[in-house]
Amino acid sequence: MLFQSITYGPIHSRRLGTSLGMEIMPLEHKLCTFDCVYCECGWNKPVYKPVLPTRKEIYDALETKLQEIVNDTCLDVITFSGNGEPTLHPDFLEIVRDTCALRDKYCPSAKVSVLSNSTQLGRSDVVEALRLCDNRILKLDAATDTMMHRIDRPVNEQLTVAQLIQWLAQFNGDFTLQTCFLRGEHNGEILDNTTHEELTAWYQAVETLRPKQIMIYVIDRKTPEEHLTKLSREEMDAIAAPLVAKGFDVSISA
Questions:
Q1: C-alpha 69: how far from its chain's center?
Q2: What Å distances lie between residue 1 and 5, 41, 168, CA to CA?
Q3: Cβ–Cβ contacts within 10 Å for residue 214, how many?
Q4: d(CA 121, CA 169)
Q5: What pLDDT is recorded for position 15?
Q6: How high is the pLDDT of residue 14?
Q7: pTM for the whole structure
Q8: Which candidate, 205, 193, 203, places its Cα nearest to that of 244?
Q9: 83 Cβ partners below 8 Å, 6+ apart?
Q10: 84 half-sphere exposure, CB direction, 13 A CA radius
Q11: DSSP characters for 100-127?
Q12: Distance CA 71, CA 170 (A)
């Protein structure tokens, strides 16, 4: 499932409401620093020279779309997501600035959100851009290196959970932590971030980071790895319960 235009929607997001999507990655293929087993965009494919939409193309497409819908649609959010990791765009900071300016002009009540896999948080320009956004929705699918590598399959094989947590800590809790819970198998390796060991590590990470909100969700569309199991609502409630009891704001999409 790939998005074929710079803007798409508005669509109803199960987590964000009425959302106008922003696609600033290539329109023909996925470009990501992860190759997650559950990614609705499929597996990464080798690309010699990715072609990204330019800052001006993105600005013009967003302004045109907002002009079209501003009188008919009440947007809750403008969301950077789509065919990979949006923070990979070299002009990401300037694109976010443009988006905030256009939002203020045409739809000032809408929030600007970014769904990111957290791998570019070592870059100061990405951190600055994310601070400009209303919603920073940042991924941490597992809190042990073994399971993070099995589920998210980072392109940088040296990436560690400790690095991700250190980068996430820059926001002092002013972000939304997003985690997909699943079970299954890939290439003969067990995938399960719901075991006692995995949940204990994840709870500890949450306690360290203390995000303002936590979004936990299950697979909802066709996945590139077919041998994955969707958790039940009861199982997701049980995962959330210890954090809710401690006062954390936890939303569940199951």
A1: 25
A2: 13, 5, 28
A3: 21
A4: 10
A5: 66
A6: 64
A7: 0.91
A8: 203
A9: 2, 3, 23, 25, 26, 27, 29, 30, 31, 41
A10: 23
A11: HHHHHHH-TT-EEEEEE-STTTTSHHHH
A12: 38
The tally of CA atoms less than 13 A away on the side-chain side of residue 223 is 22
Most distant CA atoms of the chain, gap in Å: 53
Mind listing the pLDDT tens digit for each residue in 116-125?
A: 999 999 999 9
What stretches in the chain show pLDDT beneath 50?
A: none
3-class SS letters over 10-33: EEEECCCEEEEEECCCCCCCCECC
Per-residue confidence (pLDDT) for residue 42, from 0 to 100: 86
* pLDDT, tens digit, 9 for 90 and up, residues 215-240: 999 998 889 999 999 999 999 999 99
HSE-CB of 8 using CA atoms within 13 angstroms: 17
Amino acid at 147: M
**Alpha carbon distance 131, 200 (integer Å):** 29
Position 164 scores a pLDDT of 98
Name residue, tokens 């704001």.
Answer: 249
Q: What is the pLDDT of residue 220?
A: 85
